[in-house]
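Sample A.
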Amino acid sequence: VELRVEGMTCAACASRVAKALRSLGVDDISVNCVTDQAGYASSPDTARVEAEGEKAASDDPHVAKTTLATKGMICPSCPPRIQRALKRLDGVRDVTVFLVLDAVEVLYDARIVGPRLLAHRLSQLGYDASVQADDDGVDVAGEERARKLARVAEVRAFRRRAAVAFALAAPVFVVMMLVIPYGARDAALGSLLLATPVQFVLGFRFYVGAFNSLRYGTANMDVLVALGTSAAYFYSIYVLYECSDGGGGHGHHGSHADDADCVSGHHFFETSSVLIAFVLLGKFMEAKAKGRTSEALQALLSLQPKMATVSHTMDDGGDYEEVVDAGSLSRGDVVKIKPGEAVPADGAVVSGESNCDESMLTGESMPGGSEHPLASALVATAAEARGRRGWRGPRFRVVAFDALVGRGVSAALRRADDAAAPELVLHVGTRDLVAAAGGGRGALGPERDARAKALEADGATVVFVHAAVGGRRLVADDFKATAKKPPPAGSGDVVGMIGVADIIRDEAARVVSHLQSNLGIEVWMLTGDNERTAQAIARQCGISRVLAKVRPDDKARNVTSLMDQGHVVAMVGDGVNDSPALAAADLGVAIGAGAQIAVETADVVLIRSVLDDVATAIEVSRATFGRIKANLFFSLAFNGLGIPIAAGALYPFLEVRLPPEVAALAMVLSSVSVVASSLSLRSYK
C-alpha cells in the first residue's frame, strides 16, 4: 500500500513517518521524502501518520492539480514568497514553483478553492497569472505558442527599456566624470532632467515590485534596486537644494568657484541612472536566456503522444472509437493502438496481438511483445533512486551504447520454424539464388518448381541451397567481427547471408577516444545485448570495460556499485531502460531525441542527438565553472577593495578617500566585468 504524504521537508520527517508506521506493527516500510510517498505492507490507520505533523492521503477524488503560467518572477526570492502566499489559502495542499518555466503547480482541494482564486492571489502579489494546464495536463491557456510570443514580447520590452536607459544615463555619467569649474550647477540640473525619466518611468516596475513585496512582508530584488537608486536620486536633489538660494547655499550670491565646489562631486544622479540601466540590461539577458530554455524544455516534454484512440462499447454491443487527448486517459479506458502508432500510456493487452519496437525500453534491436507494462515500474525505480542521490563532480562515465550507438549492432536473421522456413530469393547481378529449406529440386512444390523453370528460361542460374534459420545461425567465418558464430559443421559452403544490422554512429569511436584521452574520463559500456555483440561493438568504439545482458534495474545497481567504490559516475542514455541508472548516477545525461522518462530523469539534456555533445557538455560545464569563479573574483574584488576605502579605512593613515565618481565607476566596472566574463562563453567552440 502506498500513501501520498505531504509536508515532509527533510530526512528527519521521513524518519518520523517511518517510526509512526512502525509503531503500528508494520515491518516493511519505505518512506521517500523526495516523492512524498510512504509505502507499507499492511493497511494501518493514516491518522497516526497525520498525528506526526504530516498529511497523508490516498487517491482523494477531490484533490486536483493545476498549473498557472506566472509572469513576473524575477529572482530566487519569488518562489518561496509565492509558496507562502498560496499555502495560506484554505484547501491548498502543495505548491511547486518552476522559476525557469515561469510556472506554478498547485495541488488543492477542488471543493474549497479553484484555479481562478489561485490566479487572483498571484495577481495580488504583483504577478501576471493565468491557468496554463488543468488536472489532465491539457493546455487551456492557448497552447505553448502564446507563451512563446509572450516571451518574445518580454524580451523586446526589456531590450527597449535598457537601450533608452543607457541613452539617458550615458550623458549623466560623462558629465559626472568631467571636471567643470564653471556651470556645475547647470550640469547637475541637466543630469536631473535626464535621470528623472530613468528613475520613475523606466524604473517604475521596480517600485511596483517593491511595493507588492513589502506589502506581504517580504523583500526581493526590486526592494534593493528601488531603495538604492532612490537614496542616490533624492540625496542628489537635496544637494541641489542646499546649493541653491532656497537652501541657503551659494546659489547666485556666491562665486562660480563656490558654486562648483558646492555641487560638483556631491550629487549621484549618475549612480541611480547607470544602476537602473544595468539592471534592465540584466533583465533583458535573463528573459532571453529563459525564453530559449523554456522552448527547449517544452520541445522535450512534447515527445510523448498527444492523442489516443479510445474504443467504447455501446448498449447494443457495437463499438465506436473516439480520439481524445492522451492526458485525459483514465483507468479502465480501452485504447486502440494502430500500426505505426506510439503507445500513449501503460496498460495491459486485452485483445489482439502485435510486436512493438521496444529498443528504447529494453535495448533490443528486434521488435518484441510484452504482457506486462514496464515503463511505470522503471519510473518508480527512477523516483526511488532520485531520493538517495548526492552531488559530486563527474570524472567517471558510463555510456549505454546499446541505445546510443545505433542501439546495438546485433545482426538479426529472419526467424521462422525450422520445418517451414520461408523461401528466400536473393538477386545478385544477373544471377538469382533461390534457397528453400530442405534443398533439392524434389523438395519444391509445383508453384516453386514453376518459378525456378521461369527463372531458368530468362537466363538465370538457379542454385538450390539449405537455409539455416531460427535457432541456428548462418554466418561465415569472416563475419565473426559482428559477433556471430560460424555455420555448423557439415552444413556446406556459405554462399550468402541475409541480415539486418544497425550501424555504429560515425562519431562514436572519436567521442570515446576524446573522453578517455583528452578529458581523463573512464568509459564503461552497459547494454542489454548479448556478450559477443557487446564486445564487438566495444572493440570498434575503443571501450575496454563492458557489462552485457544488463536489465534496466541492473544498470542502476551497477552504477550504484561504481559509486560505492568511490567513483563519481555520469550516466548517458536515451531509452526508458536507462532512466533508473540516470537517476541513480551522480549526473544523468539524456539524449534529447530519446524517451520522455529519460529526459525527465536526467540532470542534463542534450537537445541534438549527436554523441559529440556529450563531450561538449562536459567541456562547456568546465568552462562555465571557470567563468563562475572569475565572476566571483571580479565582483568581490571591486566591492572588497572599494567598500573599506569608501568607508574611510585608509584615511587615518594615508588620508585617502574614495571619490563618488570613482565609486560609481567601480560599481559599473564590477557589473560590466561580470557580464563580459559571462558573455565570453558565447565564443566557446
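Sample B.
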Amino acid sequence: MRTFSKAFVVILLAILALATPLKSQGSFAVSAGVGGPEIFHLGFRVKLADQWQLGAFIGSAFGSATEQRGDAPKEKIDAYAMGLAAFFHFGGQSAHTPLKPWYLRAGLSYVHFDGTDYISKYNHADIRLGRGFNLTPRSGLELDAGLALMLSHKHQTKPGGLPEGLPVEVENKVLPAFGLRFFYKIL
C-alpha cells in the first residue's frame, strides 16, 4: 500500500475515533468551492456527532496554468487534488441551524501537477480556522484560513522532458491554506 493511502486510512480512523459518539441520523451536505491546496473542488460532508463533521473533496484546474520557457510555446499544466477533512464546530450561534458557526478544520490532501515535461505530486496536512455563514437552514458559505504542511513531494521528469524550470516547485514546507465554499444540506 502506498504511503499516501496509508496516511488517509490513519487520518480517517483517527477522525472517526475522535468523533464518538456517532449518530446515525447525521446530515449530509454537498459543496463547491475554491481553495489551496484543493483548487476548484466539489465535495461532500457527513455529520458524525453533535458538532463534528467529516468531509471529502476532489478538485481540478485542468489546463489552467501555463509556463513559458524561452522561445518555446506556452505549456499547459493540468492539476487535480483530493482529500479528507474533519470539522469541529464551536463558538457562537446560528439563526438557521444548531451547528455552531466557527470551526476548526484539519485535513489531508494530495495534489498532482502534470506538465509536458514532468509530473509533480504533493501530500499536505493542514489546519484551519473558519466561519460558516448560513444563508438559509440548508445553505450557506464557509471561509477558512490556516497553514498546510508539505508531508511529501515527488517529482518525475517525463521521457525527453526538461528537468529544470518547474512552475510549481515549492521551496517552503509550510504554506498558506485557505478555502471558500458554498454548501447545501441534502439531508
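B remarks: The helical segments are 3-18. Residues 3-18+29-185 form a domain with the Porin fold (CATH 2.40.160.170).
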